[in-house]
Amino acid sequence: MYVVESKGGAIACMVFALLLLGTWPALLTLLERRGRLPQHTYLDYSITNLLAALIIAFTFGEIGNSSLHHPNFIQQLSQDNWPSVMFAMAGGIVLSLGNLSTQYAWAFVGLSVTEVITSSITVVIGTTLNYFLDDKINKAEILFPGVACFLIAVCLGSAVHSSNTADNKAKLESLSRHTNQESNTTDAPPKSSKDLESANCSSLKAKFGTADFLVQLEKRRSIKVFGKSTLIGLSITFFAGICFSLFSPAFNLATNDQWHTLNNGVPHLSVYTAFFYFSVSCFVIAIVLNVVFLYRPILNSPKTTLKAYVNDWNGRGWALLAGLLCGFGNGLQFMGGQAAGYAAADAVQALPLVSTFWGIVLFGEYRRSSKKTYALLISMLLMFMAAVGILMASSGHRNQS
Hints:
This protein is mostly helical. The protein has one domain. The chain has helices spanning 7-33, 38-59, 73-77, 82-109, 111-133, 140-185, 211-220, 230-256, 271-295, 306-311, 316-340, 342-345, 351-363, 371-393. The two termini are 15 Å apart. Keywords: ATP-binding, Membrane, Nucleotide-binding, Transmembrane, Transmembrane helix, Transport. It comes from Cucumis melo var. makuwa (Oriental melon).
């Protein structure tokens, strides 16, 4: 099997993983904003996410000669390594729950802020756990100041969301007053200020950041957010962050057996074997939950059926692509983490920098917001960039023997 051994190779894996993991959320957000049901999208995503793990396992996991201490992927499937397999599958379960939660959090909180908060929580909790699991191979005097910067980014992310929510509320109230004034001048019954979806949009394609744009977006999207509490979105986001913070330490335990759960003579799970079991459990949980959500949707999403999902080809290609990007991104993250330490590999949590770029360019997030929101947004991103740079600088080197 192929093993990443150099620090440079590990960092290259992290950089490619960063680009892939920062892009797939934008694709799923795009589909939700176009009205595709999240249950349909996530079922498609889950299929190719597992496919990516299979491709990695049967290529990198089978390259080169197999040995007693470093068996190839297929050979390792028949070994007595179930304690490590269970850790890998536990990691897949919490990752699946986290990804499923963020699909709804993106609608309530926005792509940029959701990614910053969840990634920062992942680093604050997960990186600390990985540091001790990795026998402290990362430089603590560099690593933990970086973790502190991520914690500050979480606070700034929450402030950005609250400020932007207030901005949007002011825009919608202004539109509602304007609509009522127009109704009164034409002797028509005034519209309720709460009936924002029936507001008269002045253009067929409103400009990003305007009240008309917000109303048109609400009409089109599959997850309705008007009238929902700010706490709903933040609660989902924090839950997702906690799930994300646990999957990397679980994978670390699966590949390095720090708790000595394997019998003597049984080799540790390779990254590729662990990633296979990790992805299988992620797939199973996603399929089960989303099939249930077809018939019993959450957050007032529309009901649907398995037949409707099979026949829904609108945007399916983008959902399938998102699954591949996420799968290969996770695989590269784990390959880099096995070489340089999983605490340093959490530097891929810089993915919100990529997601924020897509959020602003594709979805017009924070257009026409207040100066306060812009100041908080810039502060959040600067703090996040500093944290990522510090985390990468803490990289160590794992002894592969």
